[in-house]
UniProtKB/TrEMBL annotation:
Protein name: Uncharacterized protein
Region described as Disordered: 1-60
Biased composition (Basic and acidic residues): 1-18, 30-60
Lineage summary: Bacteria, Pseudomonadati, Pseudomonadota, Alphaproteobacteria, Hyphomicrobiales
Superkingdom of source: Bacteria
Length: 60
């Protein structure tokens, strides 16, 4: 092993341990509204597709 390897290894391990944490920005009112509208639209779409699939399976 070379003389500088142990310090390089320790530096790499320290960099891994103290890696900066990525944080999400807090949502503003507009983003919260958009998010809730998107969730509601997806929920309604799933319900509609389930109703359509159910009605196609029922014999008329």
């Amino acid at each position: 092993m070379q003389k500088g390897q142990s310090s390089d290894r320790a530096k790499r391990e320290a960099d891994k341990a103290f890696k900066p944490v990525t944080t999400q920005k807090p949502m503003n009112d507009y983003a919260k509204d958009q998010h809730s509208q998107n969730e509601n639209r997806e929920r309604l779409k799933a319900e509609r597709l389930a109703r359509e699939a159910e009605s196609k399976q029922l014999p008329e």
